[in-house]
Amino acid sequence: MAAPTLQQPSFLLANLKADSTTKPFLQRCQDLVKIIDDYPAKELHVIFPWLVETVFGSLDGVIAGWNLRLLHSRCNEYNVVLGFLNPSGPMMKLVYKLQAEEYKYEIPVNHLPGPVKACIQQGVLPDCPLFHNKLQFPPSGLLTLNLALNPFEFFMFNFAYCLVTPKNYPQGQQGSSADSAYFVLVDTYLKYFLPSEGSVPPSPFSDSRGSVTAPSPRSSSVSFAGYGVHSPSLLKHHIFHQPSVTADPAAQEIWRSETLLQMFVEIWLHHYSLEMYQKLQSPQVKEPFSPTEEHVLVVRLMVKHLHAFSNSLKPEHLSSSPSAHSHTHTSPLEEFKRVVVQRFVQQKLYLFLQHCFGHWPLDASFRAVLETWLSYVQPWRYTGEKTNPQPDQNRTVPDKWESFVQENLLMYTKLFQVLLNRAVRTDLVNARNALMVFRVAKVFAQPNLAEMIQRGEQLFLEPEHVLHHRQSRGYLTPNQGGSFLSSRQRVVTDMVFRVKSHVYALEGQDCQYKQMFGSELRGAVMKLIQIIAQARQTAKRISDHSSEMASNNSFLSWFGMGPSDLGNGFCGVEPEDSGECLRKTHENLDRALENLCQIFKLNQGQLTQLISNLGSSQDDGNCKQLPDCIQGDNGLILTDLGRRQMISGLRRFDIQYQGDPELQPIRSYESALLVRLFYRISSLVNDRFGGHMNALCSRPDFLGRLGRHYLAEPDSAAKLRQSPLSRRTSEKNRQPRLSLRPLASYRMILLLLLFYGLGALLSLSPVSSTLLVLTGGFLYGLVMTLFGDKLKTH
C-alpha cells in the first residue's frame, strides 16, 4: 500500500503538466484550487516549484508563464489570475500550507543581483540578512552554490524576479502599465503585508502547532539599526561562518512583511554597489543591468507606498533615536515603520537612481525615473492628511521633515547635480523635456525646503575638531560643570553625526562633497538658465514661424493657386513641438526660470540682463543659420559645436523632403487610387519625352522659363544646397518632369467637380469646360512666368 503513495506526487505532477496543454485556463485554475484544498502538504511539495514556474515563468526567461506583465483588465483571464494570486487566495494558501512543514526550495546563486552574487562567490556574507543561513555547499565548489528558501521566500523571489527577467514579448506588445495584473498584484501585496492601518492579517492556514512557523529573518539580538548601513568594522564575515539565527517571538508578527520588502528591494534595486558604480564611470565597462521604464514605474509604486506606510507611524513612536524606545513597549510593526525607508531602501535606491540619471537615454521616457526620485524626496505628500490641499509651490514643508532631509541629504543635493548635467544636454524646446525641468524646479522651490537642504550641508561641513570639542563638553550635566545648553549641543552633535554617517555610507569615506548651494554649482545653474532662455527664444521663433505659415494659407491657396505642400510633409517641427505644445513649453520654461531664481536666490535684474543680452546677440539672420557643419563627400557633416547647437535648440536644419516628390507617402487628403494611376501615367510621359523636357527647360528664353514653371519644382536647387544628400541623388531629383499628383487631392477633385457643375448650369459641355480649365492654367503660368519674380520681391 505504501508504493502507490510514494508514486502519487509524480503522477499528480504528470497529470498537471498534461492538463496545461489540453485544458482551458479557467478549468486548470479550478483544478488547482481543488488540489490545493484536498491534497496534503507532502504531495503539494512536489508540484510547488513547477507551479511557481508556470505562473511567473522561468528565471532565465525561456518560459513566459502567465505573462502577468501583459495581462490587462480587458483580458478574460485577468480576474481569475488576480483571484488565484491574491494574498488570501489559493496560491498563498498553498504557500502557508508548505511553510508549516518547513520545506525548502533552491535558487541558483547565479540568478541573484550582481553585488550579492559577487559577495557570495568571493566567500563573503552579503549585507542583507535575507540571504544568511540559506547557502547550500555542494561538493563541486562555490560556482554551483544554491540558496535554500522557504516557500514564502521562494514565491516572493520568483514574483519579484518576474519583473527583471528579460522576456521576448510578441511584436507590438510592451510591458506593464498601471492596470496590468503584475502592477495590481504588487500594489495588493504591499498594502496587505505593509498596511498603513491595522496590522498584517494572520495566516489563513494553521498547522497542528497553531500557527505558521516564522523563519525569523533576523535574530532576537539584532535590531533594525544594523540594516542597510555599512558596518564600521573592516572585518567581513565569511560565508562558512554564518551566524546562527534563533527564533524571535516578536518577529512572528512581521516576518512576512520583512521578507517581502527585502526581496523586492534586493531584486529590483540592488544591482549596483558603490564599488561597481565607480567602475561604471569608465566607458570601457559594460553595464551589468539596465532597468526598463516598466521596472522604474513599479519601483515608484513601492516608494510611494513605503512613504505612506512609514508615515502611518503613531506620533508617540516618531523619534528616530533607538534609545527613545528602549524603555517603552513598541510593537514590531511600529518599529518596522520607523526605520523602513532609511534602513531598507535608501542606499540601494540612491545607487539605482544615480545609475538611471547617468545612463538613461535623453528622451521623454526619463519622466518615470524623475517622478520616482521626486516621490522619494517628498514624503510629506503621502501622509494621508486631507486638510486644505494647496499647490506644491505654495505648500510650506513642515519643520518636522528636516530630519528626513538631513538623513537623505545626497538624495537632494547629489542627484540634483547629476540631473543638472543631464538637463544641459537635453533639447528643452521639446515640450516633455521642458515639463521635466519645470517639475524639478517646482519641487525644490517649495518654501522651507531649500533652507533645510542648506542647513543639512552646513552640518556635514562642520569641521571634525569642532565636533569633538562639542562632544567633549556636550555630555556634561549641570552638576558636573556643564550648562543647560548641553542638551542643545548634544542634539546638534547627533545631527552632525547622522548627516556625516549618511554621506559616508552612500559615497564612501573619501568622497569629495560638492555643495548644492556652492559657487561651482551656482555657475552650472546659470548655464542651465542660459540654455532655458535660449530654448524659450527658439520655441517662440518656431511658434511665430508656424503662425506665419498658417497665415499664408490664404483663400487662393485653398483653391490650388498657392505653393504645393507636398514638399513640406517632413518638416523640422515635431507634432509635440507645435501649436498648443509650444505654448506650454514657453510657459513651463518661464515658470522653471522663476523657481530656479527662488531656489538659488538669484538677482532678478541680473537674470533679466542675461536674457536680454542673449536676445540681442542672436539676430534673425543668425537664428536662420544652419548648425556648425563641414562639407563632406556626401553632404554636410555636423561638428561637435553643431551638435551642441542642435541639442540646446539654438539652430536646426530646415528639414524638408528632398527625395522624389512623386514617391512621398500618400496623404490623408489624397486618393490612393488616383495617386498610383497618375504616377504611372506621368512616369510613362517622363520616360518617353524626358529628353525633350530637358531641352525645353534648358533654354534661356521665355519658352524655357515657361517650361521650368510647369515641369521643374520651384526653388528646388536652393533647398537641395542645404541637404546632405549625395550629388548623384540630387541631380536625379532635379530633372524636369511632369507631375499629375496634385490632381489626386480631394480638394482639387472637389474644385473640378464644382467647376464642371457650374459649367453645366451655364450650358457648357464637358469639352468646353476642360478647355476653359486648360486655358486658365496656361494663362496663370504665363502671368507667373512674366511677373513671378516681381511678385516675390514685392
Automatic annotation (TrEMBL):
A single GO cellular-component term on record: membrane
A GO BP entry: ceramide biosynthetic process
Topology within the bilayer: Single-pass membrane protein
Main location class: membrane
Subcellular locations according to the entry: Membrane
Molecular function via GO: sphingomyelin phosphodiesterase D activity
Membrane spanning stretches: 744-764, 770-788
Keyword annotations: Membrane, Transmembrane, Transmembrane helix
Entry superkingdom: Eukaryota
Protein name: Sphingomyelin phosphodiesterase 4 isoform X2
Lineage: Eukaryota, Metazoa, Chordata, Craniata, Vertebrata
